[in-house]
Design goal:
about 170 residues, mainly alpha, Four Helix Bundle (Hemerythrin (Met), subunit A), two-stranded antiparallel ribbon
């Protein structure tokens, strides 16, 4: 499943979960012990934003993706920001070659390989968010297989596997 297709599936399955969160659930615990629902939503939004900065060659501080514990959900609403961020990332992806080597927090690698890392993160946290808010935790089989393959490739033998980074 190539990235644009995977991203489309992720958006169509992830967006309803974000949209389905009720205001009284924002303080609920999630399977991610360090984050409540509000923080997990903000982490997902920041991952999308960071991905776009890396693809555009202007990465910021990756720590900002995790500094979300006390951040309110954006005034525009999580659903609107999730949609806008996704549209922005997809526009960037469509404007570039996935073979282009980009500088990432993990070292230089082809853009297509890099994109699989945050995609896996968003899939995992889609499940976490659904679980925490009593929504369906069903995952798209194709997307799940792509993410499992990514994790296997990334962490062969407990460390980042060969062939994932740029030569």
């Amino acid at each position: 499943m190539p990235w644009p297709t995977s991203a489309g599936v992720l958006v169509t399955t992830g967006l309803p979960i974000v949209a389905g969160v009720k205001a009284n659930q924002l303080g609920s615990l999630t399977p991610c012990s360090e984050w409540n629902v509000q923080a997990l939503i903000n982490h997902n939004l920041r991952v999308q934003e960071f991905v776009n900065t890396v693809l555009r060659g202007t990465p910021g501080d990756p720590g900002q993706m995790f500094a979300v514990a006390d951040e309110p959900v954006p005034n525009e609403g999580a659903e609107a920001v999730y949609t806008a961020n996704t549209d922005s990332v997809l526009a960037t992806v469509k404007s570039m070659s996935m073979e282009k080597v980009v500088e990432t927090p993990f070292g230089p690698m082809p853009a297509g390989n890099y994109l699989m890392i945050p995609m896996g993160d968003l899939v995992i946290h889609k499940w976490d968010l659904a679980k925490a808010t009593s929504q369906s935790t069903d995952l798209d089989n194709g997307l799940s297989e792509v993410c499992l393959g990514l994790l296997k490739q990334l962490f062969q033998g407990g460390r980042l596997g060969p062939g994932f980074f740029a030569d």
